[in-house]
Amino acid sequence: MTRPGKPICIQTEGSGIETFFQAGLEEEITCQDTAQFNLALIHTAVTNLTDTLSLLLPPGVSFLPGSLVPVANAPIGTPQLDTLNGRIELNWALPPGLDPFTLIAFQFQLGGFSGLPCGEEYFWLSAGIQSQAVCAASGDTCTIRVETGTEYLPFQIERPVLTIEGFQAVWQSGDTLHGTIVVANGTGIPAENVVVDIYLDTDGDGQGDTFLLSPIIPNISGLDSHSFTIPATLDQACDLLAVIDSTGQCLCSYDAFPVGQPIAYFEPVEVFGCSGEEVELAQCFPGWTAQWAPGGNLSCDTCCNTLFQVVNSSNDIQSYSLDLVLQDGHGCILEIPFQTHIRPEPGIAYADPSVCAGEALNFIAEPGIAFIWTGPGIDSVQQQGLTIFPESAGVYVLEMTDLDGCKGMDSAAVAVFPLPIADAGMDTVFCPGEVFQLQAYEGVGYQYFWSPSSVFFNAGLPDPLFSDPLEADYFLEVTDGNGCHSYDTIQVGFGQTPVLIVPGDTTICAGDSLLLQAFGNYSSLSWTPAGQVQCLNPPLCDSILIQPQATLQLGVTAINPDQCSAEDSLFITVADESVFALDTVFTCANEPVWVGDLWTAEAGLYCDTLVLASGCLQIHCTELMVGDTTTQAIQETICPGDSLALGGQWFFEPGLYPVSLSTSQGCDSLILLDLGWWELPAYSLLPADTTIFEGNSVSLAVLGQGVTYQWSPSDWLDCDTCAQALASPPESTLYNVWISDEHGCVQSLSSNITVRVDCDPGRVQIPNAFTPDGDGVNDTFGVLTAAGKEKVSEMQVWNRWGQLVFQSQDAQARWDGTFHKEVAPSDVYVYRMRVVCPNDGTEEVYVGEISLIR
Question: What are 194's strand-pairing partners?
Fold first, then answer.
């Protein structure tokens, strides 16, 4: 040990010389061991042989011999190495004789960076010249080094920082476990060939006690997982510890992570069973307790060997997920998933639900090994497929055993429909002049088809019209509403009209007889009225004798072998001296007309005697009628806005109006119209216009006494003919009401109801925690009950590892705290919800955290 001496006072003058640097590492220091150092400087004076340059290196870093590369006026040779406080100092002599401000530049390699700890280190750079100084105490002179420039050059050693985010083990059997580790790299620096040490932590102190293996993860750039095989038994599974140590690795971190519980089984245990039968579920280990979840449909939910029983009433295999949670005496938990598949009860795979009378009925059972059919009309009962021809409706029962040995019973009720009535009518011959149309029996719900169809305008009608008359046999198909068919046939022919010639109209005197003869190609004739006719050549009767007592029209009908007919008639006028004919003539007053050969305007009966062409006498009389003109006053009252039509004119306003009319005989008359208005009552409608929220109602009331009321539109009103109506429109609606008074005058009022949708996506409330423990309270996560019409259009939930654990676009969806049908652990999760208003599309996006508490 020594004590410091007294300060030595050295006196010298400043040199006025400076050195400026530009220096540093070529690249950032991460995991590499060597790096290039670039150095450039300028000196403000001419360099001398005694001018020097020094670089103090970080601890453990050294110069790599032979690595110096000159750039401009570089020093020659290897630098002199000195040690200062455990650091190596590199010293160079500057090339002499360089002019002021001449660039000196070179580069070289340094090694040993991989041994530096993470964090900040530095280089110290200095330049100096040799100078003379005076010792103040003794007055002696000495040679000293005067610094002309220094530079502190810090740098960072940055390496990956890794954290273990998860460590899970899966047991399959024997002494082997499958491990999966999730590691996060919190920096942007890739970590390569990272060694993870797997230990047994037998005393639970978080430190490894027994080393097992060191899996290597090739590359970790973000959040990465790696799987490996662990040589350990199931009893050791819960003691596993994963460690990432920075020692010997390019890392800036240390982390240890115990294996997560429960220990998972490598895959679900698949079990199959029949509906309603007991299925054995078992996986037992000595000293381990058992708990099944969920516990329903089990004979024992705390036994490692239990029976599962459920009835599958569907047509498909129903799968049920159960978890067997086993726990040893040290708290180690093993979870074994079971997938139990219950086959449906076998039965009838296909059965015709209905058939038409006389058709085949088909049954097919599901594949199996044994079948027993029972029901009406069954002969062979022990087969998979069955075809029968039932006469009436019935129920058919099947007992069977399927290919998996599952037994079942099934039944099918079958309806048997009667056939429709197909009646095309009697065979017929159409005659000219008739409507060429068929007529089938018409039944409710029947469909028709005639063939050949090309000769009809529409062959799908029960009464089709011919478009192309063709003698043929026509077939009719009738289909009823049950799809049943019936058929019929009709023979159709087309005849010709017979030729019929009869005498023309004639006149005879009273008491005379008349012989008439008809001609043509007919097979029979008939005369009407038959009582007036005497047939001279029956049965043809085309020659007759008639003696009418009065004028008549004699009709005759001819029929040919096709049963086609022709008709004709003639008038026979019977005249005598007492025949009297009366005409009536009308004229207006003072307007004379000709009556026979008399020009007169005087009313009366005027007669004359005529000799007919037949020689018979006839008295002909004419009655002359004379009409008068009239004047009449009438009074009418109408509603304001209405009109009155009179004499081809329209009247709208009150007043006294003269109207000229003609009587039914054509004579002029005068109408004095006194037109008035009814006084209209005063009405009002409350409210005139209003606004309501969707789902609410408003009362509309007419003030004032009316007789009838009619609202339009009548939609969403409790009464559309009342003075007061309760309106509940789902959308904005303009209501009009027409009110009539005691005189039938109508007035209208209106009220515009604006319907607003009660919706604000920014006001919903979202909880920050929920407890999915099955107690019926706060078991799910989602928005609280919306105050209006707000809907959740999208909902997403992530765990801390960035996994999407829940997603839905169902407005009613809520998260029940499970992930892949398994219970999610207590933790803080991140959610994102999109809330919209369906009416206008406005939306609000909510992002936050939700705590799952168990």
Answer: 217
Answer yes or no: is pLDDT of 4 > 50: no
Q: CATH says 348-417 is which class?
A: mainly beta
Residues 6+ apart with CB under 8 A from 139: none
Would you state the structure tokens that stand for residue 826, as one six-digit string? 């207590």
| Token pair belonging to 223 | 């959040």
pLDDT band at 183 (very low <50, low <70, confident <90, very high): very high
| pLDDT band of 543, cuts 50, 70, 90 | very high
**CATH topology (fold) of 162-261:** Immunoglobulin-like (2.60.40)
Closest CA to 585 of 665, 502, 687: 665
Per-residue pLDDT, averaged over 786-806, amounts to 89
**Tokens at residue 148, please?**
């002309």
Residue 6's pLDDT is 37
Helix, strand and coil content of the chain, in percent to the nearest 5, comes to 0, 55, 45
Whole-number Å distance between alpha carbons of 830 and 87: 51
Q: Are 746 and 680 in contact (CB under 8 A)?
A: no
pLDDT for residue 63 is more than 90 = yes
Which parts of 296-406 are beta strand (E)? 305-308, 318-327, 333-343, 348-351, 354-356, 361-365, 368-374, 385-388, 394-402
Domain 162-261 and domain 267-343 have a common topology: yes
Choosing among 2.60.40.10, 3.20.190.10, 3.90.1150.10, 2.102.10.10, the CATH entry for 500-575 is 2.60.40.10
Mean pLDDT is highest, among 263-267, 469-473, 831-835, for: 831-835
Predicted TM-score of the model (pTM): 0.44
Cα 75 to its chain centre, rounded Å, is: 81
User: What CATH number matches the domain at 267-343, 2.60.40.10, 3.20.20.70, 1.10.645.10, 1.10.1040.50?
Assistant: 2.60.40.10
Burial of 542 (0-12, 13-18, 19+ CB in 10 A): buried
- Least confident among 93-102, 650-659, 826-835: 650-659
pLDDT, position 9: 43
- CA 37-43-45 angle, to 5 degrees, is 160
Distance of alpha carbon 775 from alpha carbon 342, whole angstroms: 29
Closest CA to 324 of 278, 283, 378: 283
- How many other CB atoms are found less than 10 A from the CB of residue 703? 12
In tens, the pLDDT along 360-371 reads 889 999 999 999
Pairwise CA distance, residues 541 & 557, whole Å:
11
Retrieve residue 103's tokens.
């660039």
> HSE-up of 399 (CA within 13 Å, CB side)?
3
Q: Give me 657's structure tokens.
A: 């109006």
As a whole number, the mean pLDDT across the chain is 89
Give the lowest-confidence range in 9-13, 465-469, 656-660: 9-13
